Amino acid sequence: MVQSMSSTPALVVDNLRKTYGNGVEALKGVSLTVQPGDFFALLGPNGAGKSTLIGILSSLVNSTSGDAEVFGVSVNKRRNEAMKLIGLVPQELNFNQFEKPFDICVNEAGFYGIPRKIAAERAEKYLNELRLWDKAQHQARMLSGGMKRRLMIARAMMNEPRLLILDEPTAGVDIEIRRSMWQFISGINAAGTTVILTTHYLEEAEQLCRNIAIIDHGNIVENTTMKRLLSKLDVETFVLDVDNAPSHLPTVPGMTLRRMDEHTIEAEMPRTQALNTLFEVFSTSGISVTSMRNKTNRLEELFVRLVEHGRQEPSKEKVA
Amino acid sequence: MSNLSGNLIALHTIVRREIVRIMRIWTQTLIPPAITMTLYFVIFGKLIGSRIGTIQGGFTYMQYIVPGLAMMSIITNSYGNISSSFFGAKFQRSVEEMLVSPMSNWVILLGYVTGAVARGLVVGVLVLVIALGFTSLHIQHPLITLLSVLLGATIFSLAGFVNAIYAKKFDDIALVPTFVLTPLTYLGGVFYSVSMLGEPWQAISRVNPILYMVNAFRYGVLGISDVQVGVAFAVMLAFVVVLSWLALNLLRRGVGLRS
């Protein structure tokens, strides 16, 4: 595995714009930097421009203007060199369904100029690590949805890229397989590969990624560390399972309580507020709490706010 | 690893994959032309040909049509192979495996063309072997025979590649063979000598590229041709150059492949 020792950023996206032939402006001057060794989340609602950005980085989409550099190599000017550094796991299945996983991986390595002997060793290694080795000689169309997703990850690893881009790799995959995929990708990242992840499972991004960019309507609306972003969340909502929720709930200073049904109460409160007051009031009122959890994933709550905020307030560009 | 050695490994990968594909679906790629040509030999060569007598320098009609039918099989199979394989890769999006890789565009083109020419060659050999069951053949000019097969197969591989690039649905790769390739083949002197035609049909026939391929091949096998062999090779080379330029230009611009 190639270690990311240099200080050259893994990715520099510079004022990238893309307007499709039908006039749709998918990217409106996107700029961002990803440091080597980072686990970077690129989030955004459907149609925000994530896949267009990834398409440009992997040379499947031609940019209208701007450029991107992968470890200092321009995608526009030195495409072939830049592509050697990237591994891509696309959103849609894009392998020949009639070929065998082993052949798909070995051929992929061949396209990157990797000799067949080395390619066969790597195919065995990554198919094993992704628990697909027993299916290596079956036709790919016979694999389950989760296996097909894992096959695309194994295929993307064949050139042992310095930058691995995963476009919704866990879409439609059950939680057990998703976790095994997280484990694999985390291991790859720990070994030095820079990872860029797009996902609609925000819990996934929160657990795995250190830095994050949120893109909406072709603009980056947030680009910071995961820690700093999460610290912006000032209000949290807890769901409390109780043995019997009274129809008239007691008042707790600084909190808003809502009775959802006879066994569920929601409590919305500032993140700085201690929970002790809530339990004291509940205890006095004879309400017994059996369990509690966050209503939504913290990142999900922030994501929705940021995207909604962007839609309510016209961007500077639109105003100009 | 240098760019050249990387590109050569990539080229080998595409060619190998294409040949594996041809062999995997041999009932679709190799058997149909063998059956079709056997029927042509039985019906046109034996049953009807025996009543025609000799043609151009004492060749039986069967001997006369063998080179044309072999060339017809070679070009239709080369064309069909590349158009269905490359469009299939586009349709399944597996073409993206190559588009996101560092390989150069000429490698993609040369890989697919080599695969298609290989199928054309295998089919050509099959047809000639079947023909030997019906008549005797002595190849007069082996080098010209081989070169004309390679050039003919290359031209139609390139044309099939261009067709696949523009195609948006499977119907689009069937249109050209049905409305262009088949009429040109039948009017390209496979079954007759253009000298049998009156004007203006003889002049019109001379703008048909297949006429030059069939006659170059016929010259290689039988030693007779309706056109000058040098002219035939010049025409074929010109088509190779123009179609290669067109295909590479389409790949560079990403027409039908990149957004």
TrEMBL record, chain A:
Protein name: ABC transporter ATP-binding protein
InterPro entries per record: AAA+_ATPase, ABC_transporter-like_ATP-bd, ABC_transporter-like_CS, ABC_transporter_ATP-binding, P-loop_NTPase
Pfam families: ABC_tran
PROSITE patterns: ABC_TRANSPORTER_1 (PS00211), ABC_TRANSPORTER_2 (PS50893)
Keyword annotations from UniProtKB, A to Z: ATP-binding, Nucleotide-binding, Transport
Keyword Transport found: yes
SMART domains found in the cross-reference section: AAA (SM00382)
Native source organism of the sequence: Dyella dinghuensis
GO MF term list: ATP binding; ATP hydrolysis activity
All copies of domain ABC transporter, residue ranges: 11-242
From TrEMBL, chain B:
Membrane topology: Multi-pass membrane protein
InterPro entries: ABC-2_transport_permease (IPR052522), ABC2_TM (IPR013525), ABC2_TM_bact-type (IPR047817), ABC_2_transport (IPR000412)
Cellular compartment(s): Cell inner membrane; Membrane
Major subcellular location class: membrane
TM segment ranges: 30-49, 61-80, 106-131, 143-167, 173-195, 231-251
GO cellular component terms, A-Z: ATP-binding cassette (ABC) transporter complex
Record keywords, A-Z: Cell membrane, Membrane, Transmembrane, Transmembrane helix, Transport
All residue ranges annotated as the ABC transmembrane type-2 domain in the record: 24-254
Domain of life, per lineage: Bacteria
UniProt cross-references to PROSITE patterns, sorted A to Z: ABC_TM2 (PS51012)
PANTHER family: INNER MEMBRANE TRANSPORT PERMEASE YADH, INNER MEMBRANE TRANSPORT PERMEASE YADH-RELATED
Family: Belongs to the ABC-2 integral membrane protein family.
UniProt protein name: Transport permease protein
Organism: Dyella dinghuensis
